Amino acid sequence: MTIEKTPLEGCFLIKPKVFKDNRGLFFESYNQQVFQGKVGFAPNFVQDNQALSKYGSVRGLHLQKGEFAQAKLVRAIQGEILDVVVDVRPGSTTFGQVYCVVLSGENNYQLYIPRGFAHGYSTLSEKAIFAYKCDNFYAKHAESGIIYNDTTLAIDWGIPAAEMIISDKDKILPTFEAFKTTL
Ligand SMILES: Cc1cn([C@H]2C[C@H](O)[C@@H](COP(=O)(O)OP(=O)(O)O[C@H]3O[C@@H](C)C(=O)[C@@H](O)[C@H]3O)O2)c(=O)[nH]c1=O
Asked: Is 0.95 exceeded by the ipTM?
């Protein structure tokens, strides 16, 4: 397993060591000892989530605020997604910067997203199964987010606008400018 820094402070791309044989393959999808050794701390993951999405689905950008903030370790078990994170930690040297990476059931990459980031993903394949670990519980009242098509962030989700599938909740998220006033 390799753990690489991304351009965003505290956000890491994890590439597992995959063992292939005539039965299929095997890899460690999380190893606390390795994570601690390479990153310097071990998150206390308390909730695992899984979602199935159709092609064109865009989920996000989401985060939970304050004491309910969540760090996440995300991956695509099947299919291909474009994972997108935005550093919205006040005072961070990479505040407002966006990082995107393709995660798939083929590359088995994972992204460690620290607390205080906004997160979203689009589904590039016909369908995708997305799974993630969180270091804090779901708290509906602490949910916040930024609109997926914010013009200042200008995220390319890899999906034509006419084919995007977006939840009603996500369609009314604030712009990045408006979100910033809530920080
Ligand atoms: C996230 C979440 C949702 N739910 C419920 C609430 C709702 O009825 C249903 C679907 O929720 P949502 O529409 O918020 O699901 P979704 O849009 O997939 O939300 C997720 O998006 C990605 C981008 C993230 O980063 C996650 O942290 C999470 O916010 O599931 C839980 O019970 N527990 C949870 O942890």
From this structure: yes
